Amino acid sequence: MSELARSMPDHRPVQSVPEASSIWRNRTFRTVFASYSLSLLGNTFHSIALNLWVLQMTGSAKLMSLVLITHLVISMLFGSIAGTVADRVNRRRLMVATDLFRFIIVGGIALCMALPEIPFFLILLLTAIVALAGAFRGPAFQASLIEIVGKNGVSQAVAAISVSDNLIRIAGFAAGGTAVAMFGGVFAVAIDASTFLLSGMLLLFAGRFPYAAPDRQDKVKTSFRTDFIEGFRVVWNNRFVRGAVMLLPLVMFFFLSTFMLIQVMAVQVWQASPIIFGLLEACIPLGYVIGSIIIMKFDKRMRHRGKLALISIALMGPLFVAISLLQSAAAALPLIGLVGILFSFSTTILFILLRVAVDPSLQGRVFGLLGTLTSIAPPVGLAVFSALSDHYGPAIIMTYSGIAMLVAGLAAYIGLRSMREYS
Q1: For residue 238, what are the CA distances in angstroms to 2, 301, 321?
Q2: Average per-residue pLDDT for the chain
Q3: Residue 184, CA distances (Å) to 6, 54, 110, 138, 179 in order
């Protein structure tokens, strides 16, 4: 069977297990969802706690940036490798192993932070190991979602995960900063380690995923190199998958970079008060949550989801242009919230359609590659847009960014027929 054929939708369930009408009736999903939320909380908590501790102890923004760069480099280098591994092994066991491993290593980081005269290089090395474990957990979780809820439950599950993403990231950053301020960095990182332990225990409690394919004992054994290359072939040979994998990083590139320009405008042009600035920061995640809830609520009634995703991408462009022309931050708040909803429609729907379009046995490689690309695009966009903003001003760059996003959305709508016709 060719790689292209294997990547096309297969509407037969992996096992003849009856699918529940709601994902929340699925005990395995509830348990894995709680595990994912705890793991994500640990990631955000760890990031802010460690960064604040480094800044407090050294006073060096350069050393703090090394922690962020370490995570970025690990994601770039190992995303596709981790995705291939996730397709070759039991994904649940891989997630359990990475959670327990991170519990041990993050605990080691807390110990190093407590000891005097520990070189920063050692903490950075342990941070890289934690990031590496997280790089393997990501595609394993993304690929296993269809094994947990089946194809009929994917839309609700992805939307629920999107809601959790935004709420947990906000809570994680706030909790991490508060913990460091009240108890110090060592205690905060130690608490962070416990979230990975609890996440792993919940995965053990979840049991076998109901829609998981049988073990590969009776299948032809292939080399790691063959499987690794096959992942790239699947993406390249399937028009829909290739379009989604190229489009999602592009959306991240423009969206996150343009939102940074909105923040710059709020300070430099609109001179927003702290309260208004806080509301502005909250509009995007709030809009994303609202969009995800709408997708989850009306999943069964939504038709032409591919068209909806592409139209949402195109509409964000004119909204960014409109925001760049406004004279106050308060007037921009509803438009920014609407951008958040459209961003949710575009990205969440594309993630849903990818899970339906790609064979479950190949999803680790596809999401591993996608994770690599989406980790590269935002930093590049932020660097380019911030430099242009300093030279020309944020409003004019936001206008051109909005126009470029509109053009990209229209080009995708016209050129990606396979995505446009996907319902």
Answers
A1: 11, 27, 34
A2: 82
A3: 52, 11, 11, 29, 7
